[in-house]
Amino acid sequence: MQSEAARRIVGVWRYVGTWIDGKPRPNRGANPKGFIFYTESGDMAAQIAPDRQTAMAGAEPTPDEAKAAAADYVSYFGTYSIDERAGTVTHHRQASVQPGPLSDYVRNYEFKGDRLILRPVGSHQEVVWERIK
């Protein structure tokens, strides 16, 4: 039997923004875009793209151009699990654009109307998503 949180989280959510200590995250521009989705079968994916264009001087990006394009871009996928008692959703990453180990991301979750708020455990950051209907 699925928990209420598991039923509510399934779907596609549009990125609204990220706040740290109540202030918007400055690095992503005025209108960053993104999606996160959760399937009923336990798969998930997340992407957030900064609001900026990255120019290329030639047909292939230079290392500096590629680095600038990836800066502040978040993209990963995997599976997820919900601990309703703890109020957390864990993203079990299987692949990611970000370098480093594929550790799990544990987030406190909160539903407010059509919004899903994810907070990395132990941080002052909020990532806000709005359900796509």
In short:
With 133 residues, this protein is mainly beta. It has helices spanning 4-9, 63-70, and strands spanning 11-20, 23-24, 33-38, 43-49, 74-83, 88-96, 105-112, 115-120, 125-131.
Protein model, in words:
The structure is a single chain. The protein is mainly beta. Helix content is about 10%, strand content about 50%. The protein has two helices and nine strands, in the order H-E-E-E-E-H-E-E-E-E-E. It has helices at about 5-10, 65-70, and strands at about 10-20, 25, 35-40, 45-50, 75-85, 90-95, 105-110, 115-120, 125-130. The protein has an eight-stranded antiparallel β-barrel with strand order 1-3-4-5-6-7-8-9. The longest helix has 8 residues, at about 65-70. The protein is globular, with a radius of gyration of 16 Å.
Low-confidence stretches: none
Q: Provide a count of the helices.
A: 2
Number of strands: 9
Gyration radius from CA atoms, angstroms: 16 Å
Strand content: over 45%
Helix content: 10-25%
The main pleated sheet reads as: 8 strands, antiparallel, barrel
Structural class, from helix and strand content?
Answer: mainly beta
Shape: globular
Which series of helices and strands comes N to C?
A: HEEEEHEEEEE
Distance between the termini: 25 Å
The largest beta-sheet arranges its strands as 1-3-4-5-6-7-8-9
Q: Average pLDDT across residues?
A: 91
